Amino acid sequence: MMRFAWLQFRNQAAVVFGGLAVVAVILAITGPHLVHLYDTTVATCAAHGNCSTATSVFLKNDHTLQILFDALVVVVPGIIGVFWGAPLVARELESGTFRLVWTQSVTRTRWIVLKLGVVGLASIVAAGLLGLMVTWWSSPMDRANASMYTAFDQRDLVPLGYAAFAFVLGVLCGVLIRRTLPAMGTTLVAFVATRLLVNHFVLPKLIAPTQRSFALNGVTVQGFGQMNGGPFTLFPANPNIPNAWFYSTQFVDRAGHPLSTQVLTSACPLLESGPGPSAPAGGGVESAVPAPGAGSALHDCIAKLAATYHEVVAFQPASRYWSFQWCELAIYLGVAVVLAGTCIWWVRRRLS
Amino acid sequence: MTAVMETAGLGKQYGKRWALHDCSLAIPEGKVVGLVGPNGAGKTTLLQLAAGLLTPTAGTIEVLGGHPGSGPEQLGRVGFVAQDTPAYSRMSVSQHLRMGALLNSHWDDELAFRRIEALDIDPRQRAGSLSGGQRAQLALTLAIAKRPEVLLLDEPVASLDPLARREFLQVLMEVVAEHGVSVVLSSHLVADLERVCDYLVVLVASHIQVADDVAELLATHHRISGPRRDSRSLPADQHVIEESHTDRQTTLLIRTEQPILDPAWTTRPVTLEDIVLAYMGQARDQERARKSGLGVLR
Amino acid sequence: MIEFQLDSTSGVATYLQLVQQVHQALQLGLLEPGDQLPTAQQVVGKLAINPNTVLKAYRDLEREGLARARPGQGTFIVGTLPRTDPATQARFLESMAKWLRSARAAGLGTDDIEAIYRTAVRNCFAEGVA
């Protein structure tokens, strides 16, 4: 049965693994050059004292390729779910060939288990390989960026978890819907929805963030003003913690109460009346640059408030990166196993 | 005598509808069984239950003494050719045979390729480009080469032209002669099966109407006609299957084990088709009577 | 070796048609003792009929002492049937033709004549059995 599953799958496998080989060649050609550039510019920038320039110049290299490969890693699991997963059983049900294959001397339990196994393994290998290749290729950029959580879902282990989940999800949609095209569409929608939900509601809550306090000063206060017509306030700046994933930054007093507009205006009346900074640009991005003249007022204000207020930052440090990787991988693989079990049960019991 | 298929109170329900109801059968081994009935009578359901593709809602079914679809051994003993003979359209004929070899432990590769060659089918051809007759032959070859003890065929010739139909049945009968395999094949036309089967099951409206040896059926059924009279006045051993009356004459199709002694009757032999049509008509009348009976109760 | 044909409209049981064709072949001298009959597989491969039908016909022929199955070889003709004398055949054909002409002159159609013939045959042979 294993060999038959392979016989039916090998053409599809050839397409995807052929594509992977092409990607591998491109990465192998361009990758070493990036490593060399990094070693000669960013790695030695501290000695020349021009790190920000060196970094931004370095990051311009192969920028398009970077975007392309990152997108590929995000998209490939979905493609696997839609084109490998959904038709796997749906096409058999649609064309009636299940009546042919289920009446050979192989029980349908064994059939579905091996189908899921062979194609599922190929899905994991394909997405895993792609993820690891892109991780390797991007490593100089990622080090220069010092923002490892930004590309979290395109690096290391999690892509293979997405692929395993997407594949089994596709198979299950096919088993339940029994028609190829609707199953493919449903798979895509369900996969994207799951990824978004997990990203926004599950992943941030996996580990409680670390809290750290910083004194109120010219570095932690980025500026002041109103954002999107909100209350008049001071804007906190993210502290310089490399590779951290920031949840929130705010100014609070010793009791933990956040800095209110009333406190601010009574402590620093000059700020509001003075020629404050222009409203933050870009539709509410926290970037209010103190206008000249307001500088001294802000400085006085900070000095006044610093006695009672400090900045509290909630974040995930770089050290937890691998915990998050393993956790998310475990979640997706776990769900994939549950869905696979449902598939097998359904094929055994409900399709008869 | 072992039964090729034995069912007791077998039923299969889809939603609220019974596709097969209270079906009790014992088909002896070594027969070519014709399963005849109008479309939607439950033939496909019965065959798929026997092949293990479906599980019964009620009752039991045993094929060759085993539970259908219960394991590789049981699956290997039963060859199944599904209605419209599905095949993987993008796989070649030889890949289908390869599938048979990989998925069946008793696969006879030599037999399979010999059959395909005899049928003049190019093994490299994709199944999707085969004619209906060729695809049916491929499906039959796959079912035969796994060397089953019983072949189940669901309307194998319904979609074939007369020539392909004849060729298919020729091959099927050769296999029966060569390997002594039991066969159950369904059709909504008794004419398709008349020459090939020696056992007949008539299935109408999800019920078994009659199941018996063809020779027995032909020997015990007679069409008699004579002066008009009430069919209830017949001897107790004569069962009326079909009756029609004119103002002068009565014509009956009866089943009886005994000779017909009444000289008033002119007796004529009946064909298998006459018998099947009579039973189908009987089932229809019973159904009507049942429905109108219900109407009265309401 | 003889080749069987089937007339599916005759109403005669298939195995009986096979038996009758062997009888005719023996009567006409087309088959002689020692001749082999086609195997069941050959017959069903051509006529698409149930092999049991062929075997039943051959069993009937064996019972009549006309054929015998040799294990592993096939079924062979061992008996003979008296050939019908051609002169006798011609004589009866002539008298039948005369009878038919008079029946037609009396206004009987084909159907009437066949009905009479069938009844006569049935009565005649029923007498013989009884």
Write a structural description:
- The complex is a heterotrimer of chains A (352), B (298) and C (130).
- Chain A has helices at 2-40, 45-48, 51-59, 63-95, 98-101, 108-145, 158-177, 180-202, 261-267, 269-273, 281-284, 294-305, 321-350; strands spanning 210-215, 221-226, 232-236, 245-253, 309-316.
- Chain A has 352 residues and is mostly helical.
- In chain A, the strands form two sheets. A three-stranded antiparallel β-sheet of chain A has the order 1-5-4, with no helix packed on it.
- In chain A, helix 1 packs parallel to helix 6 and helix 4 (63-95) packs across helix 8.
- Chain A is elongated.
- Chain A starts with a helix and ends with a helix.
- Helix content of chain B is 35%, strand content 29%.
- The radius of gyration of chain B is 22 Å and the shape is elongated.
- With 130 residues, chain C is mainly α.
- Chain C folds into two domains: 14-77, Winged helix-like DNA-binding domain superfamily/Winged helix DNA-binding domain (Arc Repressor Mutant, subunit A); 86-129, no CATH class.
- Chain C has a three-stranded antiparallel β-sheet with strand order 1-3-2.
- In chain C, helix 1 crosses helix 3.
- The relative contact order of chain C is 0.11.
- Chains in contact: A-B, B-C.
- At the A-B interface, helix 1 and helix 5 of A face helix 2, strand 5, helix 3 and helix 5 of B.
Fraction of residues in β-strands of chain C:
5-15%
Distance between the termini of chain B: 48 Å
What share of residues of chain C is helical? Answer: 55-70%
Biggest interface pair, counts: A-B, 20 and 35 residues
Query: Which residues of chain B form runs of ≥5 with pLDDT under 50?
Result: none
Structural class of chain B, please?
A: alpha/beta
User: How do the strands line up in the largest sheet of chain B?
Assistant: 5-6-7-3-8-9
What's the CATH first level of the largest domain in chain B? Alpha Beta
CATH superfamily of the largest domain in chain C: Winged helix-like DNA-binding domain superfamily/Winged helix DNA-binding domain
